[in-house]
Amino acid sequence: MSVTALDIISHQGMTPRRVFGAYVAEARSECLRYFRAPGFLLPITLFPTMFYLLFGIVMNHNAPGNAARYLLASYSVFGVMSPGLFGFGVSLALERDNGLLTLKRALPMPPGAYLLGKMVMAMLAAGMVIVLLLALAVALAHVPLGIRQALSLLVTGMLGVLPFCALGMLVGTLVKGQGAPGVVNIIYLPMSFLSGLWIPLSALPSVLQRIAPIWPSAHLQQLALGAIGLEHVNAWPHLLVLFAYTAGFFLLAVRRLRRLG
Questions:
Q1: pLDDT tens digits, residue range 12-30?
Q2: H helix runs in 52-110, sequence order
Q3: Does some domain include residue 3?
Q4: What is the pTM of this model?
Q5: If we measure between CA atoms, which residue out of 104, 59, 225 comes closest to residue 157?
């Protein structure tokens, strides 16, 4: 059974109510499965919060200006990349290897429910990361944030995980399960550095500054900075780039799934 664009929104022989119920059930199943797995949940929540606590608060407690505010946006992007890349890239590769994906396709449900369930899981995990970082920023770093700015950052993070879901999905169709964590880290960590998430782009060599716009994380960071009012950002160019990345990676991944399973 192949995954097509039509399969993502419908399934032959099922009423709209049953199709909707299948999507809800699969999303709930994916969320429970991953949120009950400490090996998945703890790293994606602890790493960005620990890094922000150390580099954004402890080491910058006497720093002038908006250092803690800037790093809040940067580590928010760093944090939301993880559930997309690992939740899709590693898990999809493993589930292809152990036959779970084949079993999912044999079940009487829309094939797209499997993918959308993982997207919902990644969005909720990204939201958890943002909430934790906001709590640290307000309670410990005393970053002045309004409710509107906090909600804007939360929405930016939860939607901003989608390009990395699509990228992780593509990686999961290209590599075997055992090699997936290494490949994802090779993408995740250099992309974070080259996007200016750890060191501001202005402090990087000029050649790295020029190539930064090719990374989706650099565009998401600009949206995050705009969400918390640190920079005046024209959001549309960044949104269009992220949408293009999402659609491109997703279509390539679906094509490979259709051909190779």
A1: 556 788 888 888 988 998 8
A2: 67-84, 91-97, 100-106
A3: no
A4: 0.89
A5: 225
